[in-house]
Amino acid sequence: MPKTPLPPNTKVLIMGREGQVASSLRRALKDLVHLEQTFFDQDYAGEGAHFLDVSDLKAIKPLIIKLKPDIIINATAYTAVDKAETENEQALVINAHAPEVMALAAREIGSLFIHYSTDYVFDGAGHTPFKEDHFCAPLNTYGASKRKGEQNIIAIPDLSYFIVRTSWVYGPDGQNFLKTMLRLAAEREELGVVDDQIGSPTSSDQIAAATLAILKQSYHDNQEWSKNLLGVYHFCADGFTSWHGFAEYIFSTARDLGAMLKIKKLNAIPTTAYPTPAKRPANSRLDTHKFTATFRYQPESWQIETERVLKELLKLTP
Ligand SMILES: NC(=O)c1ccc[n+]([C@@H]2O[C@H](COP(=O)([O-])OP(=O)(O)OC[C@H]3O[C@@H](n4cnc5c(N)ncnc54)[C@H](OP(=O)(O)O)[C@@H]3O)[C@@H](O)[C@H]2O)c1
């Protein structure tokens, strides 16, 4: 993981606390900068933690102005892709309106704003990786709300921002496909997983490391952000697979690491055999050349990173 060159008194505000990316960012940044985080769960209270429900749009700006961070990283999101089909308004508030309010506040106090988006802003057509300037045509409500969030940020003049689109996020924290597969493999002997959606499983730790790479490359000693680097980037792990390929690798690696799994048969099924309320893109490949060339950071392969996360997770499981 790259070390940040930021002065240790740099104040970073992470929006979100217990989510996958928020948790990885906390681990990656905690000894490097002065860290503040927002949390959503009313019961949590800790040092450097501030309650904020981002759907309460009026509450966002006063908190940001009070804390005056140098950098704001928005790791909050409405990520329940299927539920978003019926909770359209809630998804739009959290994924589109709240980031806009954060970005406006960031501009007002001269902070850098970092935001994450998704492969689901594309229509999934074709078989080649999407570049940053490819036209967006989301297939579902979640993707549309994330695209609206991007547009709201991009439209703000004189804002210093990075938008990092990533894909298929998993990690040791929160809920994700890898954890669901481990649970199902311990319960069932046979499972069907779709093999006609292709993308790159990307760990939340990789996204945190990529965020540090951005900071490292774009910060100058004179406390300015390289204006020519700002903008939209694609970042994901190296290599592509299907959900079925990801599941197969999870099971074989977990077994190699000593996990006792009940699963005997993993069937490759088409998307049509696994209907969901939200339509998913068949092609979720992201082209990361712009990111790797600009920030000189080469992501690890999805297989190596999956194995590392599995080791971490299985160590925690008795
Ligand atoms: N998950 C994926 O597969 C995926 C794929 C592509 C892109 N992305 C993008 O990557 C980014 C990070 O996603 P993730 O996987 O880390 O998401 P996640 O695990 O679902 O975490 C979501 C975060 O949002 C916070 N949050 C949700 N509603 C909130 C509200 N009303 N007020 C305050 N906080 C709220 C949660 O707060 P608490 O911590 O307080 O619970 C949590 O920290 C998002 O922009 C997402 O769109 C994700």
Can you walk through the features of this model?
The protein is an alpha/beta fold and 318 residues long. The chain has a single domain (11-175, 202-239, 280-301), classed as Rossmann fold (3-Layer(aba) Sandwich). The protein is built from nine helices and 13 strands. The protein has a seven-stranded parallel beta sheet, with helices on both faces. Strand 5 (112-118), helix 4 (141-154) and strand 6 (161-166) form a beta-alpha-beta unit. The protein starts with 10 loop residues before the first strand and ends with a helix.
Topology:
Layout lengths: L10 E5 L4 H10 L4 E6 L9 E3 L5 H11 L3 E4 L13 H22 L2 E7 L22 H14 L6 E6 L2 E2 L6 H11 L2 E5 L3 E2 L2 E2 H15 L12 E4 L6 E2 H14 L8 E5 L19 H7 L6 H15 L2
Parallel strand pairs: 1-2, 1-4, 2-3, 4-5, 5-6, 6-11, 7-10, 8-13
Antiparallel strand pairs: 9-12
The structure holds NADP nicotinamide-adenine-dinucleotide phosphate (NAP).
Sequence of strands across the biggest β-sheet? 3-2-1-4-5-6-11
Helix content: 25-40%
Low-pLDDT regions: none
Radius of gyration: 19 Å
Shape: globular
Tell me the name of the CATH class.
Alpha Beta
